[in-house]
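Project outcomes to date are best conveyed with an example. Our students and postdoctoral researchers have been running inverse folding experiments weekly, and each run begins with a structure described purely in tokens. The record below, which covers 177 residues, was selected by the lab manager from last quarter's runs and is presented without edits.
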């Protein structure tokens, strides 16, 4: 748990810096990959469900420490990770993550943030009714992002837990490699 908090802290601090620094980008990508690997293996990176999220220059109040009572929406994604495979430096690629609200109340996605400005999410602003589907479109600009890239989009919604994550991955190669 301590390692996951440290990695998360480093990622949060690093994302506050511009995406123009390629060395920093590489370090962030490696850390994101480590966090994703730990989460995928059920390792220590899985957050304590009762822990308060850390607010970093964000006026949004922290999520409640306990699950709210009453009916709640729930997001069920068809997939949470998309691998673009090998792409050329400078390619702009997109992927649509489809989901269904399989909860008991309308789903409202209030925010979607990527770990870097090179990754831009688009999400539905209107409520998604119970049983209805929605889409999160993620666009990744690979310009000056050589090597394996792992990018995470964190969604904030009126669900429990309040955040969900989807990820994209790509191996960016220079022209002619």
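After processing, the design step wrote out the following sequence:
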């Amino acid at each position: 748990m301590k390692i996951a908090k440290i990695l998360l802290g480093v990622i949060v601090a690093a994302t506050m810096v511009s995406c123009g620094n390629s060395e920093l980008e590489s370090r962030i990508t490696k850390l994101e990959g480590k966090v994703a690997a730990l989460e995928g293996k059920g390792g220590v990176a899985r957050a304590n469900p009762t822990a308060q999220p850390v607010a970093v220059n964000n006026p949004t109040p922290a999520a409640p420490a306990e699950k709210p009572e009453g009916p709640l929406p729930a997001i069920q994604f068809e997939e949470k990770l998309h691998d673009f495979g090998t792409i050329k430096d400078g390619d702009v690629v997109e992927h649509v993550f489809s989901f269904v609200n399989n909860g008991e109340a309308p789903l409202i996605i209030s925010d979607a943030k990527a770990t870097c400005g090179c990754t831009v999410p688009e999400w539905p602003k209107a409520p998604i009714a119970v049983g209805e589907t929605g889409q999160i479109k993620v666009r990744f600009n690979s310009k000056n992002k050589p090597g394996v890239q792992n990018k995470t989009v964190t969604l904030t919604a009126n669900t429990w837990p309040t955040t969900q994550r989807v990820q994209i991955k790509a191996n960016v190669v220079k022209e002619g490699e």
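The longest strand covers residues 147-157. The chain has a mean pLDDT of 80. The training component of this project remains on track.
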